[in-house]
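Everyone, study these two lines:
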Amino acid sequence: MGLSRRHFSLIAASLLFARREAQSEVSKPREVRLVLAPSNLGLRPENGKEPGTWQAPRVLMAAGLRHAVEAAEVMCLERPLYDFEAQPGTRIRNGQTLRKFSLELADTVRAALAAQRFPVVIGGDCGILLGSLYGLRLAGGKGLVHVDGHSDFAQAKSYATPETLGAAAGMDLALASGRGEPVMTAWPGVDGPLAADADIVQVGERGRDDPLFKTYYGDILTTEITRLDVQDVLAEGIDAAAARVLARLEARGLDRAWLHVDLDVLDEKVMPAVDSPGSPGFDYGQLSALVGLLAASGRIAGMDFAIYDPERDPGHAHAQDLVACIAASITQRAA
């Protein structure tokens, strides 16, 4: 029996509605999986006390982070124990413990990506970059956008004395690019460094005119790492800077890169509660706009936020602003 025109119209409308629903489902941004990484392993002790960055995930969650980013899931890693003394086989502070923590973090990030989630890792200090980036590599992605008020390119010459241990949070970019001890640069299943120089974009260095810049980070000037100092970003505008970053990722064929954000890229006038505050830097709107444009491009597979220290923030006065900044940064992430 043939279909009446009305019956046909109803079926067609139903099919069109179902198709639109399916398309809408396909185009939805990946759901956020928050990964809480309460680590302070990469920082030096201060006045005989271990740094307070390990408390950041708890404080930001209490300030409403999960609701703000509409996280579908939250994974919380166990806090690793901080060691004041040198560990066997390494001159990097907490090197063996940080490696173990990085392996655990990598498994968590890889699993999130395999489940088609958008992992957002909340630290902790900048040492969380290593496990996050390793997890990306295990999931088949590569490339790094390093948004930080410092290049974090310190190497052995900065700490190779009998009295001094290296701090991974000040050398995370060097380690990620394969420079340093094997405990932090040789990872199972990855051939070569976690990120090749040509696949790295560093955004936000503020100390290019500091006399000590070349002493600690000057080696970066001789690499293929793309650099956008904060002075240049502020001069040309956030939109133009984001376009330059994305052009580099496209030129390198990178469509599943990791984004690392050290919150000391914020100007100390708006964010003093970090281990190395400074100026010039971004305000909250500029940082969220930059990260948001990168996330909206579809070339960022996941990201981490690091170095907020609640012990430097009496009453946790900056926690709400940070939550709002992080939420605004990922709201426009691509499907």
Q: What stands out?
A: Residues 30-330 form a domain with the Arginase; Chain A fold (CATH 3.40.800.10). The longest strand covers residues 300-306.
